[in-house]
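Expect chain and fold; see below:
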Amino acid sequence: DRYWAFYHKLLEYKKMSSNALAHKIKIDFDTVFNTKINYFQLDRLIDKTYNNKTKLLTVLLKPEIPLHNNHSELGARKKARKRDISYHTMSDKGTACLDAFMTIVQTAIQHNVDIYQYIKQMVNNDQNRITLAQLIHQKNNAMVF
């Protein structure tokens, strides 16, 4: 519970950073990750985390950086999930097509691009369609404040 509480403080800091909260997070880090559980392997991992304090608290200097790499992990998980459901494709070409399709879909989802509209334009061979890269670029430029 202490680890999750600490993580939620980091999320709070990302939303509204302040020197007071940064100071509290540093103190909490020391409290949470300088604790002995008396379970050798877990204590070793906690020590390893504590020794990476500077890197792990980079978010206090740059709140815009992500706290985790789950987005990358989730992309890989989608493919594994599809493989579990469908078992496999019938050919190497089918595997390559499935990989390409899933990459396009996941990239579009990550960048809030309407994947259904994009695929509809591709299937209909719409001569005025915009590439996925252009759509992502447009979305990113629209988000700049």
Remarks:
- Helices lie at 2-15, 19-33, 40-51, 53-56, 70-86, 92-110, 115-123, 132-143.
- The CA atoms of residues 89 and 95 lie 6 Å apart.
